[in-house]
């Protein structure tokens, strides 16, 4: 067992550019991958929540990973979102992503049906016994069954292929508890925060990095914060965190998540366009003010 976590840094849960017919824009997605790497992300996380994985077909989800893995070409790790609606399909996705060269997968806790802690453990236990690729647990209680501390500990103790957790709750007490429960016996286990507004506090707690949606719009800021935190330059890091938090609030607060992030990506020169979900006229009318607010924040951060 390694004495250090396998994955560290900022992994971008990228949006998927669409064309005028709302189909995957492969050329623009490839350009976006290059842009993200050139601007400092440590890894890519396609098919995450910001990547709207539930709004694509299973075949499209696989195609997105194929494109990203091919375009990355080994420059940075790829953490492929592999969550499907049941364990059989999720394990099949794990097998496919291992075959095409992804470095690991991230699997959200069971969604739609709210499961008990025991049910969540049984779900991931079956995946842990059958996956051919390393697995990151994805805890996002706002959308799926929560993963409890004891569940993470039991899975980490039992399955060497379960190597990380991404927590998007923003709960610092939860993160501290899982780090204290797992790191002494699994020093290779990775801890990622998915809540951008608490990236610095989570890094100070001992997180190995973040899967932060803001990195898809302002990768320079999230990389800068990570580097400053690792260098223990906390006063400077706090200033960057303030910029990230303001930007994240504007991006996340826009109507119809993740439309705000699509607008932000578009402002940085990548044609993300709108998503597939039909939107009300009222929400569309807010896009102009969202765009202006984001432009102002990006300009203040020196990114426009």
Q: Topology, please?
A:
Elements: E1 9-12, H1 26-38, E2 43-44, H2 58-72, E3 79-81, H3 87-100, E4 104-108, H4 117-130, E5 135-139, H5 149-158, E6 162-167, H6 172-182, E7 190-193, H7 199-205, E8 209-210, H8 219-230, H9 234-253, H10 259-267, H11 281-285, H12 287-300
Helix pairs in contact: 1-2, 2-3, 4-5, 5-6, 7-8, 8-9, 9-10, 9-12, 10-12
Describe the structure.
- With 304 residues, the chain is of the alpha/beta class.
- The protein has one domain (9-233): Aldolase class I (TIM Barrel).
- The protein is 47% helix and 10% strand.
- It contains 12 helices and 8 strands.
- The protein has helices at 26-38, 58-72, 87-100, 117-130, 149-158, 172-182, 199-205, 219-230, 234-253, 259-267, 281-285, 287-300; strands spanning 9-12, 43-44, 79-81, 104-108, 135-139, 162-167, 190-193, 209-210.
- It has an 8-stranded parallel β-sheet.
- The longest helix has 20 residues, at 234-253.
- It is globular.
Write a brief structural summary.
The protein has helices at residues 26-38, 58-72, 87-100, 117-130, 149-158, 172-182, 199-205, 219-230, 234-253, 259-267, 281-285, 287-300, and strands at residues 9-12, 43-44, 79-81, 104-108, 135-139, 162-167, 190-193, 209-210. It is α/β, with parallel strands linked by helices. It is globular, with a radius of gyration of 18 Å.
Index terms:
TIM Barrel; 12 helices; 304 residues; 10% strand; alpha/beta; 8-stranded parallel beta sheet
The helix count comes to 12
The CATH architecture: Alpha-Beta Barrel
Q: How many structural domains in the coordinates?
A: 1
**Roughly what percent helix?**
40-55%
Oligomeric state of shown chains? single chain
Low-pLDDT segments, ≥5 res:
none
Strand order of the largest sheet: 2-1-8-7-6-5-4-3
Q: What is the succession of H and E elements?
A: EHEHEHEHEHEHEHEHHHHH
Largest sheet: 8 strands, parallel
Termini gap: 45 Å
The SS-based structural class is: alpha/beta
Going by CATH, the homologous superfamily would be Aldolase class I
Q: For the record, what CATH class applies? A: Alpha Beta
